[in-house]
Amino acid sequence: MSRDAIDEMLEQWQAERPDLDTSSLSVVVRILALSKPLLRQASRALEPIELELWEYDVLSALRRQGRPFSLTATALARATGLSTGAMTNRIDGLESRGFVRRKMDPGDRRSVIVSLTSEGRKMIDKAMSLRLEAAKRSLGGLRPNERARLAALLRKVVLAAKDVV
What domains sit in the chain, N to C, each tagged with a CATH number? Predict the structure, then answer.
């Protein structure tokens, strides 16, 4: 198996501090090293349709709800990991592009319902195809069973990290 710079870093630590178990760093540092290039790749995949990654995140959260492709602004913020204030700004931007519309929640006058427009749905469907193709390319070195194993292991890491953060 090929070696990477992280292998070299860990060997250096092992030589300097053989009393330390650096095995957890072999995973964490690799995940951190992947985050920036994967984010860049995701952004580049959306460039042909002039969609920003944050726009994709919001439209995707609405699209995967199924008909009527709507959520309250608060639920949308929660689904994308944003504050409600940040979500308001994002909804404004998407509304100005004609991708979403908002209306008052008839069940709660303090709440706003955000829905995909037909243009928003067309955009997110194009974007999803581009994102899936980019993700597939990024994992091209893995066989399907390896991708499934990696996904399962990373799921365990994500779930365990909720207890840490």
Answer: 5-164 (1.10.10.10)
Residue 58 to residue 99: CA distance in whole angstroms: 10
User: Distance between CA 121 and CA 100 in Å, rounded?
Assistant: 9
Residue identified by tokens 């994308």 is 80
Instruction: Say whether pTM exceeds 0.90.
Output: no
- As given in the structure block, the two tokens for residue 44 are 């580049």
How far apart are alpha carbons 107 and 141 in whole angstroms? 50
Pairwise CA distance, residues 110 & 84, whole Å: 13
Contact between residue 134 and residue 41 where contact means Cβ atoms under 8 Å apart: yes
Encode pLDDT of 6-51 as tens digits. Answer: 999 999 999 999 999 998 899 999 999 999 999 999 999 999 999 9
